Amino acid sequence: MLNRAPWRLRRCTLLFVTIGTLLAASVSAFAASAGGDVPNMTSPPKAGPVEFYPEDQVAPGMNAVAWTVFQGNRPEPVPVEIIGIWKNAWGPKQDIIVAKMTGKASRTNVAGGMSGSPVYIDGKLVGAISLRLSVFSPDSICGITPIKLMTEINEFDTGKSTDSRTPDKIGPRVGASHAQASMPLPASMPLPNDLLEKVVAAGNASRGFANNVPMMTPIATPVTMSGFSDQAVREFSPVFEQLGLVAVQGGDSAASSSAKPVKGWETSLQPGDGVAAVLVSGDMSMTAGGTVTYNDGKQVLAFGHPMFNLGPVDMPLAKEDIIMTLASSYQPTKMGNASDVVGALRQDRHSGIEGRLGIEAQMIPVTLHVRSLNADDSVRKTRDYKFSVFVDQKWTPYLMMATMFSSISNLNDFSEEATYRLSGSLKLAGQEPIQIATMQAPAEANVPTPMLLAGWWADKFNRLLINPASKPKVEAVDATVDLIPERRVAQIESAWIADNKVDAGTDVTVKVFLRQFKGERLQREVKVNIPAGLPRGEHRILFSDADTLDRVQTIAGSLNNFVDMRQTVSLLNQERSNSSLYVSLVESQPTVYSDEKVMPSVPASVLNVMQSGRSANHQFVSTPESIVEQRAVPFDFVVNGSYLLKINVN
Questions:
Q1: How many Å apart are CA 374 and CA 380, to the nearest integer?
Q2: Residue 1 domain-assigned?
Q3: Average pLDDT, whole number, for the chain?
């Protein structure tokens, strides 16, 4: 009996050795078919030249391996089984490789942020995981963009994409009537390409099952919003959703708002690493995340599908650390934080994005001071924000809108009856600084006051960036927003003069009355000059708000196709403050408005010559009367309305 124990021990030992040999052989066989031996399965790919696997040799049943980060910053191998080739699925003569991800990806599913994960067969790069099939499918079915399509990105250096995904292209609310989809807003509220209306409409959009048909779609790009208030994420995330992106609230991000690459950029963004395109950086950040597909030491390819499909672009490119990968059959998403900037994104195309390491992108640096005031207008608390914003004709106004809204809506001092007073300046290279000032108080429209102010703010950048003559370089933005704990609105009610018979060449005193919102009646005495050459007879004095005087000139500026940057800056600086009452004399002679110029009291003969000589590219607007502004009476209220006072000149 004692002699049998060694034999049993030998049999057990032999059994374990046999099982171990079989397991090792299985792992080695899989490793060989997936692109290398066992050590390669635990070693992520490195930057540098790599051989591409011929697309025409990819066949169903082949085993491959993908690399992506699930947590932290180290890529992990993911087994991939090739299912087949979907001909022309990505466009004419643009095939997609359909595959199934297993291993850890079978639990997480094909997650947002995996876009660009490199796939290898026999150690050769096949392409990037970029698409997913259906929404509720339990299988991790993905589409792989062939690497050949991605390397074609650099062949298109100048053309601007016609189907870029930008905030101005979001649709109306699903199921909404025409009246609901075009929600009326205050006439005095300028909108950047109806951007405010679109943001509000997108917030009420609903997605039905009809939109979730089983087809290959680009993996949703997670847009991490760090430092933004909960309300800001809720208000603006529907816009991202309608553009095929997923807004994710983040935590800490890179504290620096600089777009200058950090030291050590040469070894960054290895294949399989997380990568982030930076839209906003600093105290608030907004980044679009994905995975690096290819890095030759200088050029980086990622995503395998468009981010915004902007074409040529200039945007900071940063490393991304993944906090976690949220598993879900509906909307699996990587949650990450952008860290160091290491280069700049140069192309955003149909088959991926392309960036360069070690170069710096242009950003707009913004300094925003938010002050809470007491009832006596003394400053109770100040918060200072510093951030930088990506420069793009369509995206910059939207990003300025989102950052402004978040800065002023995330305050304990907020109340529905609060008024916001904004003042500041925009410094442009080679131009005069643009001075801006406005007040926004609660309106009757169902739009929060911070959103009204954010829309007004965004409109200034929209008007700068849509200039067809040149692209402005905004060197610095500095603005202050005061939060006043009451609704400060004053409606122009009437005006009174002791004797409406006046003499030319004299000054007369007029009393103007304004009605506060739920407050006392305001009264001001103003001096009005009656010009010496004014003809005898009836004339009118106009007491008005800023919008009444600005409206015609704004229309005139919008008619002309070639308003250069100098004229645009001049027009913005000529805009009047809505917290002042304006006193003007109305004369019975035409005024011509052309670009930034105002020509009052134009003789009829001169007007006829101008009308006959106008060109299609240079229009002007004329009015039958001239409104000659004399003075502005400052009020610390939002002034609305107008009143005409008749006088008789002796």
A1: 6
A2: yes
A3: 81
